[in-house]
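Ligand-bound model needed. magnesium ion.
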Amino acid sequence: MARSMSAHCSKLTTTLVVFFLAWSNHVPEAAEGAPSWFWWPPSGGGGDDPNCLSWRVMVEANNAKGWRTVPAPCVGYVRGYMAWGQYYRDVGSVVDQAAAYAAQVAPADDGLDAWVLDVDDTCLSNQPYYQAKQFGPYDPAAFKMWASRGICPGIPAMQWLFQTLKGRGFRVFIVTGRDEETLGSSTPANLAAAGFSGYDRLVMRGSGSRGQSSMVFKSAVRTQLAAEGYRIRGNVGDQWSDLQGDCVGDRVFKVPNPMYFVP
Ligand SMILES: [Mg+2]
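Prediction:
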């Protein structure tokens, strides 16, 4: 009898495992805006593929340039990285470094010591959007529609850094390549809803800078800030194009983004 029960349990376990594996490979994509933990576990393969880890390190080190989409075998890996804690752990580590550095810089009484922060996937997360799009190539119309909803979640470690910088007496400028004409109301509303209130200026891309690369546009913005007398002490972005060019700041901090590349 005991042996029969044991065999029965073993069969049941096998059935459950097979069912689980089949289900985990066929879960639908998360609905846009759905919490990332909802569709568990990550599907799509590549979850622990060492080649995908190499690809991500290459991307973060800026050795890969101009890539247009996550390689198909690594979609599952990127989903897992973004949704299962490592991404937020990595952002937290960057923020720790930025805060430690900021603590060593004493802002002068003239109020001209400043930090520059990017918006997309630095202050606000587009993870729900890109996850729903299977981390596919950039789609300007669809992204604009998503961003115009103003529902991007704030990235918690960056919310903390933002408040810390303000509390230390730094000026905080938020600089984004988002189009001012179409996203000029949803972006500040989204930032405020996500805990980013009280910055000194939000600079968006106007008609005069349409078509410029992000690096050219942001270099011009920082050059203007420097011309106004601001000393950029730190600069935080998820793209190397946020952190290269002119007047980048005394130190730059790159937060991870294996979802897309902006030149
Ligand atoms: Mg960005």
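The CA atoms of residues 18 and 24 lie 10 Å apart.
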